[in-house]
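Worked problem 6 (solution included).
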Amino acid sequence: MTVLDTALDPRTPGYPEARNATLDRLDRLEAAIEEARAGGGERAVTRHHARGKLLPRERIEMLVDQDAPFLELSPVAGWGTEFPVGAGVVTGIGVVEAVECVIIATDPTVEGTAVNPYAVEKIRRAARIASTDRLPLVNLVESAAESPGAGTPPGGGIARDLSRLSTRRVPTISVVFGPTSGDTAYLPALSDYTIMVRGHAKMLTHPRPRPGTNGSDVRKTPTAPADQLAEDERDALRLARQCVRRLNWRKCGPAPRTSPPGEPKYDAEDLLALAGPSTLFDPREVLARLLDGSEFDEFKPAVGAAVLAGWGELHGYPIGVLATSDGPQTAVDTQKAVHFIQLANATDTSLLLFRRDDAGTLGSGAVDALAHSTVPLLSLNTGRTGDPRFAFSWPADGPAASDDDGVIDPRDTRTVLGLCLSAVHSAAVEGAGHVGAFRPGKVDQ
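Solution. The predicted structure is:
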């Protein structure tokens, strides 16, 4: 392994300004996250607590293992739109009984979640992550007591995504804390295991229009029996943990190659400046603050200057890195990227794709190679290019991005990517070379 040597001097012109600009963006992001955590507002939260009920993040905290991390996805979805920040639903990945699970928790203090397109997309995205990465799905479900449009017939997308989980033998568990309606009613209806809180849980049917109601009334009729009845919310979460424990779940992907992993040799604080606006950085400077031991074996360093590729480890997991830097890309750059993607598939190695906001994008040949690639792909600042398992971005001016899984603090990048690598290894890590999608080796452009 080659150790990267990319020390940065905070006194370098532009460094303080870029760092401060990123901190300002993070302040705005934190304000939006606090707004999402507030749910339907102080009055709705107080009323909910007065009924002896827990908020979605409180339910998640009681569900996951003590001191285990919870990676929340798209926490500020809907920011800058007519819909509530966070979209009235919390999604993410948490560890339950030592098993990594996708968790969906609807917020009953937020009205209108059933007709909120951001809520529907968050739920569908979470279901797709569970399916692709072979992660058990745990739904913590309750709708607002009087949710506008709660009886609106669903589009069926959630039902299709949940059905795919069943065909791929990925277990689904639902805990119903109160009435459910709209698209969220599909979560318990299509789950393998359903736990309902006695006296509170109701799975509502979609309405038949009644005279004088304009079709807005909902018949409060349970649609399916519970597999288990809980006495209260805490008992329900205990039963959910017990259910996950009895899954006898095992990962199909390999464990980390190095344990414990070596820490990067450079401070993650520098990423605040590297993520700042108008900062011209070498991708190697970012990798030196992400990869284990700051070690990186560059691939074809003498050719294709607009594309950086190479191998390293992140939290002990082998990873191939493909980054675009400034400058126009040539056919040589594309050939280099395609060859590297092929080699990652031939060696069953996950890929990380990242770029700075104003850097060039991959050539069409490389994008096509990513489309045929089957090893896990993580992306940073690239949106959904290549259909990644997880996609994150650093804070930028304007509304939060809606084409990724969340805006993250640059200093948390290594931790977030490490959690994602662990999650994707719940499924088998197999390259396209195994199924004949393309053969490893050099290609002509």
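Discussion: The chain has two domains: 38-245, 270-434.
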